[in-house]
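Side project, low priority. Logging it here so it doesn't get lost.
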Amino acid sequence: MRLPGARGAALVDWTSGLALGTVGEFPGGDHEAAAAEAAEIARLAAEQRAFAPVEDDVPADPPLEDLIISNRDSYHLLRFVPTSFDSSVFLHVCLGRSDGNLALARIRLGEMAGRLVLG
């Protein structure tokens, strides 16, 4: 939450839609609903072959690096986390559009995902 403009953050299992940990506030005020909704979007995007890496025929694990969703007042950044198991975990950060820095958030979430030890 030391990220400029961060309103809320969660570690989410995109297979089950469960929030494994949360901090801050998400739109609607319900962490579990926000995790389930973000997981649904993550699953839909991850299952599409159109978004797979082009340079090789070996499936990536996780299949995506991140997703960015923007609306009038915020950015939602979903960063997939590589794990030693089936890689079904992502970080979800909600940034205020007026005071958030999307580029910095992508860099920091990438660093954070690399430091997470799962499995």
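Brief comment: Helices lie at 31-46, 102-115.
Revisit when time allows.
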